[in-house]
Design goal:
about 425 residues, six-stranded mixed β-sheet
């Protein structure tokens, strides 16, 4: 039986006033308060949690006829539960997802076309990435509001640790491996972190594909075939395995725990997204002052990139849909967008989010803008409705390659054979 894991984080909210001429006014609520359920991991993430709670309060104060009801799930559980939540009789009105889910969710009847709620031509001139917004369009209808372009491949490093060890910022895989080894001190300090635990296959794919993509590996190659057994893919897997076997990466540890080590100042480097730096500001402000971001140390600039969206539930009532549009109107205002980009460190919905003052304060932001231009979609091209299942299969074989003595070539050949069988 094929598994259909639906990512859906729902979303948010906030700020006040409607954006003139960007949305239609929608149906006014004249006979009671409308509750808009919003499911998202942001309701429980440090830093973002406080931001979203404050905007919920601001929005409701300015719009007393609408109540935003958070549907909160942690990141580690969200993607396993959202499909159940969406299929329930009490599903959220606004929810978050990625490019990988759009076709599947449309087929399952979850997505409301936004054309009647948005001035789409004007929207396309206002968003920071029209190419990203266009990914939510199917047959002339826009089904999602672009939220973020989320490239994960920036090389985040602790300047203090590198300087103390006399290590330069790596610019090649070989330099990264040497630096990771040099910066590791027993189990007191690690040179690098990368996901290697079976607890969360999403983390495996998010982190390990950064390395594999850097070597030129793709799940679907240029010929349109499964490329998991291609030389470039195998080279990336071998490098990831070598990093782990060099005792430079904490083992048998869930990735979120590895991140906590980083925030405690006990890790020198990682490949991750801009949100990681802003998260550090919340967890350990003193550490955050020591962090910087460099381009990934690989020849291929391709990086796992989530293109994320807000969606409105097609099964919601007309009043709920109109209320949801007002919530998203508020979300798109500069008062929220400028704060949001500070929390996530990515190109966000609106051009107006990134001010000259922001660029001066966070010069590393350009790294993520440039990486986003080379982004590798998490949707499996040609198999979009099976992306979640395919990525889980690949993650399982990556773990087999890491934890057994079987030649990587053989393991990934078996992976390709299973992918072909499953997608026939």
């Amino acid at each position: 039986m094929k598994r259909k894991t639906l990512f859906s984080i729902v979303a948010l909210i906030v700020s006040m006033l409607a954006a003139p001429n960007l949305f239609s006014q929608g149906q006014q609520d004249e006979d009671g308060v409308v509750t808009v359920k919003m499911a998202s991991q942001f309701w429980v993430e440090p830093g973002r949690k406080e931001l979203y709670e404050s905007f919920k309060a601001e929005f409701e104060a300015a719009n007393p006829d609408i109540v935003i009801e958070p549907v909160a799930m942690s990141y580690t559980e969200y993607f396993d539960k959202i499909d159940i939540v969406l299929a329930s009789s009490n599903a959220p009105v606004i929810f978050f997802g990625t490019e990988a889910q759009i076709k599947l969710w449309k087929e399952m009847g979850y997505l409301e076309p936004l054309n009647e709620h948005f001035d789409i031509p004007k929207l396309m001139t206002e968003v920071s990435s029209p190419e990203s917004q266009k990914k939510a369009e199917i047959d002339g209808n826009m089904y999602g509001l672009y939220l973020e372009a989320c490239p994960y491949g920036g090389l985040i490093y602790n300047e203090e640790l590198l300087e103390k060890a006399g290590v330069k910022v790596p610019t090649t895989p070989e330099e990264l491996l040497r630096a990771a080894k040099t910066l590791t001190i027993g189990n007191q300090q690690y040179g690098f972190i990368t996901a290697n635990s079976p607890d969360n296959l999403q983390h495996i794919m998010q982190e390990v594909m950064l390395i594999i993509n850097g070597f030129g590996g793709r799940i679907i190659n240029a010929k349109g075939d499964f490329g998991v057994a291609d030389p470039e893919f195998i080279e990336g897997v071998k490098f990831w395995k070598e990093l782990n076997k060099a005792d430079a990466v904490p083992q048998n540890m869930v990735y979120n725990t590895q991140r906590k080590l980083f925030f405690a100042g006990k890790v020198a480097m990682c490949l991750d997204g801009g949100y990681f730096v802003t998260w550090a500001m919340s967890e350990n402000p003193e550490l955050a002052k020591k962090l910087d971001v460099a381009y990934p140390p690989f020849a291929d600039m391709g990086s796992q990139t989530d293109i994320t969206f807000f969606f409105i539930n097609k099964e919601a009532t007309d009043r709920q849909k109109a209320a949801a549009a007002r919530v998203l109107q508020a979300y798109m205002q500069p008062s929220f967008q400028e704060k949001w980009v500070r929390q996530c460190g990515y190109p966000v919905t609106m051009k107006n989010a990134v001010t000259p003052a922001f660029r001066e304060e966070f010069p590393w932001f350009k790294v993520y803008e440039d990486i986003a231009a080379h982004g590798v979609s998490m949707a499996v091209k040609g198999h979009e409705t099976q992306s979640s299942e395919i990525r889980k299969i690949v993650a399982n074989y990556l773990l087999i390659a890491l934890n057994t003595d079987s030649p990587v070539e053989e393991v990934m050949k078996e992976c390709k054979e299973e992918l072909i069988q499953v997608t026939r």
